[in-house]
Amino acid sequence: MNHADIHGRVLSIHLTTRGLGFVFMDAPLSPINWGTREVRGRHKNAQCLAKVAALLEAHQPDVLVLEDPEGRGSRRAARIQRLSQSVTTLAQDQAVSLCRFSRRDVKRCFERFGAHTRFEIAMAIAKRILAYERFLPPPRKIWMSDDPRMSIFDAASLAMTFYCQPGPIANQPGEMAA
Questions:
Q1: CATH T-level assignment (fold) for domain 3-164
Q2: Is the pTM of this model over 0.85?
Q3: String of DSSP letters for 31-46
């Protein structure tokens, strides 16, 4: 039995230096809503946290999926690590189950599709979820900054990693797993 069989609504959020990307799904290949939320100026963490709270309120997910900023393969800034902890606390306060996956977990999930890099993973997602094809940014050159749309694919990769895990891994509301 996989997560598609036992869980309904999944909100996956990928935190970035410019805001966040999110995907809301009710099955592994059935996105309901997705997008990015940009933040600027001072107090970015407070702005991001307010946007996450609004997404939780609007979608009422059964599970919130985040990247584990301290997991293997993750290179997240200290500010993003603090923001992730604040989102975890918010999930606990709102009694939403929480799962966190490292970048290594995501790469392991997508190995079966021959996808190893972030862009290859994004291409694998776009091939399986046709609605995402038009959002796929061009490959990034080393001198270019990340395209904000890439955070949608990072969020989708986290959600799909959640769905491909065998058995129940989502803990009680606010508890962490994986």
A1: Nucleotidyltransferase; domain 5 (3.30.420)
A2: yes
A3: EEEEEEEE--SS-HHH
